């Protein structure tokens, strides 16, 4: 009887286990389930995902603040005032390690953005295109490709040697082009710098083809200025290509791309697509007037969507909150050729004997939009590329005058102003340093030319051959990716 009871009990347990067979194969708690394609099941859900891609790019750890901060403070124009290792102090002192917060956080946010783009592109190929149609799908995928390109570009600027060192043969970063939705072995060796740049250009070319010329308010022919500032359109991809090619010192390509959106004579404007153009008064662009035609791309914020604690660009550069940095009195603001009558000087204020910048004037909750790219940059990219290929070039001088002249009508450059092409190039580089102060271009300008980082305060000059010239790879990546190599 006892033996019969045990057999029955065993059968009952087997039956119970069979009924709960799914418990033997639980859903991974670290996976991103596609719920049988539900995220791509409706047009509204797909559009929400597109906007979500911009949200990861807009993170305060990436283009929503920190990327621009690191770009500026790694140069020579700012002095640190807090010695706070969480707020770019180690970037300023050129002492970052693989476990520094900026090294870890920029890497992880960039790859989070890249992976989200990859997952979206994969999902559109498998499910989404059938839902929204080929034309809308092409636009959305183009937006994803643009955002992925921008994230990879950010990685190259800090973790890799300049392209010019050996035509991009140096180690780059892992090139991940398919989405990872569950925990697994994702060891992947870096490709070369040149290969990453090639992927960036490929993505931007694809974006140029698929992006709309202009965004209109739904159901109308009225231009939606906010969308054209905060989402990529065709001119955005072209403009970003001028930045990328300038970083590669491929000046002929800079000219080819810029000519698509810069008219041949002043006033310089985009002749196709969104009517990008220089504003007559630059100062007004930084007074909550973000949806003007000079902004090619900006990261928007409002009281409900803020950059996050210690990410706000105003707290770094505007003397607000913790006042992390103030302007180096021996930096670009000391340059005598930047005249006191130049209207850009009005964007500098003095508080308690220290100079700060007023491009980002809004205090808590810090709702200033963060510029990623302005039309002025495309104008100066073209000016530099023409000077480097054609010497003392009339159009190059006209482009330079377009930027200087709207701020300082007393300075007008002519061919006789320069004794050599190098003089013209140096004038353009100085204009960039003035024009984009606090907007996150200074380090890239030094790096692409393989120039030393000038000394600042008690921080000595850093030469391109010094180990601290670029950041080390993320310590977390080194821990979990056995093929990272450094």
Automatic annotation (TrEMBL):
The SusD-like N-terminal domain extends over: 40-246
| InterPro entries to which the protein is assigned, alphabetical | SusD-like_N, SusD_RagB_dom, TPR-like_helical_dom_sf
Q: Where does the signal sequence lie? A: 1-20
Sorted alphabetically, the Gene Ontology cellular component annotations on this record are:
cell outer membrane
Q: Please report the stretch or stretches of sequence annotated as the RagB/SusD domain.
A: 335-449
Location of this chain's protein in the cell? Cell outer membrane
Pfam families given in the database record? SusD-like_3, SusD_RagB
Keywords of the record: Cell outer membrane, Membrane, Signal
Major place of localization? membrane
Q: Which family does it belong to?
A: Belongs to the SusD family.
Stated name of the protein: RagB/SusD family nutrient uptake outer membrane protein
């Amino acid at each position: 009887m006892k033996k019969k009871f045990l057999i029955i009990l065993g059968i009952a347990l087997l039956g119970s286990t069979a009924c709960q067979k799914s418990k033997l194969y639980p859903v991974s708690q670290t996976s991103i389930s596609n719920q049988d394609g539900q995220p791509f099941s409706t047009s509204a859900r797909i559009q929400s995902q597109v906007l979500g891609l911009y949200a990861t790019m807009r993170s305060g750890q990436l283009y929503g603040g920190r990327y621009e901060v690191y770009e500026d403070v790694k140069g020579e124009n700012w002095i640190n005032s807090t010695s706070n290792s969480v707020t770019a102090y180690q970037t300023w002192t050129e002492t970052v390690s693989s476990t520094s917060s900026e090294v870890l956080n920029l890497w992880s946010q960039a790859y989070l953005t890249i992976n989200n783009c990859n997952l979206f592109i994969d999902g559109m190929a498998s499910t989404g295109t059938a839902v929204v149609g080929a034309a809308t799908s092409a636009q959305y995928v183009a937006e994803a490709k643009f955002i992925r390109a921008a994230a990879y570009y950010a990685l190259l600027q800090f973790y890799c040697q300049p392209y010019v060192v050996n035509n991009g043969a140096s180690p780059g970063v892992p090139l991940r082009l398919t989405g990872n939705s569950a925990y697994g072995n994702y060891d992947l060796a870096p490709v070369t710098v040149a290969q990453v740049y090639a992927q960036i250009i490929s993505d931007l070319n694809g974006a140029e083809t698929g992006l709309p010329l202009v965004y209109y308010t739904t159901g109308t022919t009225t231009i939606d200025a906010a969308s054209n500032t905060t989402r990529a359109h065709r001119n955005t991809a072209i403009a970003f290509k001028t930045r990328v090619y300038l970083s590669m010192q491929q000046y002929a390509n800079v000219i080819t791309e810029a000519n698509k959106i810069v008219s041949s004579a002043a006033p310089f404007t985009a002749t196709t697509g969104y009517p990008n153009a220089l504003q007559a008064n630059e100062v007004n662009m930084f007074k909550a007037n973000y949806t003007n035609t000079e902004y090619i791309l900006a990261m928007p914020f409002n009281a409900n969507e803020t950059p996050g604690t210690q990410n706000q660009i105003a707290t770094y550069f505007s003397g607000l909150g913790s006042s992390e940095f103030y302007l180096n009195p021996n930096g670009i603001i000391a340059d005598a050729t930047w005249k006191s009558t130049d209207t850009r000087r009005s964007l500098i204020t003095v508080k308690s004997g220290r100079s700060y910048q007023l491009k980002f004037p809004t205090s808590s909750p810090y709702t200033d939009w963060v510029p990623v790219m302005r039309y002025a940059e495309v104008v100066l990219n073209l000016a530099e590329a023409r000077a480097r290929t054609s010497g003392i070039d009339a159009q190059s001088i006209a482009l330079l005058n377009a930027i200087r002249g709207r701020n300082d009508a007393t300075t007008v450059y002519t061919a006789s102003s320069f004794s050599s092409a190098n003089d013209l190039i140096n004038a353009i580089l100085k204009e960039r340093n003035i024009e984009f102060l606090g907007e996150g271009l200074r380090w890239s300008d030094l790096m692409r030319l393989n120039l030393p980082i000038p000394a600042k305060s008690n921080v000595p000059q850093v030469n391109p051959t010094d180990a601290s010239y670029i950041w080390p790879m993320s310590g977390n990546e080194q821990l979990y990716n056995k093929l990272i190599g450094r």
